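Lab manual, section 2.4: Encoding a predicted structure.

Procedure: take the sequence of the chain (302 residues), apply the prediction step described in section 2.3, and record the output as C-alpha cells. A sample record is shown.
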Amino acid sequence: MKMTYHAFLPQHTAGTHRVFAVVDHGAGETVEALATFPTAERADTIADLLNLLTAGHPPELTRDRLLAALEAEPGPVRASVTSMLDAIRPSRYLLAVQLQRRATAGIASFPVNGCPAGGCGTCTTCGGGCLDCPACDSGECETCIAPVITPRTARLLYVAAELLSDQLSGIMGDLDMWGFPPFVKQLSPVTLAQFRTAFLALATDLAHGVEPHPRTNAEEIALHLMTDRANVELETGVFDDELERLPESAADYDWEGILESLFQDNDYAGLLAYRGKLPAKEVVSLFERFDNMPARPYATTA
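Recorded output:
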C-alpha cells in the first residue's frame, strides 16, 4: 500500500520534545510519533529538514544536512528517521509546502561562507565563517568565495518580495511610494497580476533555499526592486530581531553582488526609467523565459 508523508511537526511540552509525521497509509491522514529529542532546538531542526525534503528542497544538500544533524542523536532515533527517508516523495500538493516554518527553514539553509570543510590554508577564520577576516576582506584569499545569498540577505529579500507583491495586488495602493518603474502604472490588471507573479516566484526560490536566478525580464526587474526595498528595510531596523535569529555572514547584504552575479545582463535597466505605455510586444517579452533557464521544479506560491 502506498504511503505518503505530508509534513513533519515538532511538539514541545515542559519535559518532552517530539517530532510527529502527518502520514497517509492509504485510508486517510493520521499523525504518528516519529522520535523524541532532548531539546526543542534539535526537534525543530529535524522537523524542518524533513519538511524541506518533503517540499522538494534540493535533496542531496538537505539529506546530507539531515544526516549530519542526526549524528548527535542515539541509534534508535537515527534508525527511526532514516528508515522512512526513501518513502518521502516531494509534491507541491503536500502540507509541508504550505508550512510557514518550512519557508523559514529554507531561508536559514543558505550558506554563510564558501570555505572548504577543512579550512583553506590562507584564512585563520574559516571556522567562524570568515567574519572579520583580513585575508578575505583584502581579496588575498582566492579559495573562500563568499556566497551571493546568505540567510539574512535571503530573509530581507523575501520580506521585500512580499511587500512589493502586496502593492501590485492593490492591498496598499500608491506604487510611486514603493519605487516601481513608471511604466508599471500603465499595465493592464492582467499584466499587473503577471508582474506580481515574478515577485512570488523569486520568493518561492528563497523559501526553497535556492538562489533567486531571474528567468524573465520581469523577474530581473522584480529582483532589482527587491534589493532596493530590502536595503530600505535593513536601514529602518524593523526586522532586526528576526535577522538576529539567523546565522551571520561576512557576505550579508551585498546587494551589488546580487545584481552582478544573478542577472543575465543589464538590458532590463532601460525599463526602470521608462515612462508611458509599453508596446504590446515589449509587454509580452517581459514574461518570456530565457532560453538558458529551465522552468522551476516547484510551483510558485502566493
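Check your result against the sample. The radius of gyration is 21 Å.
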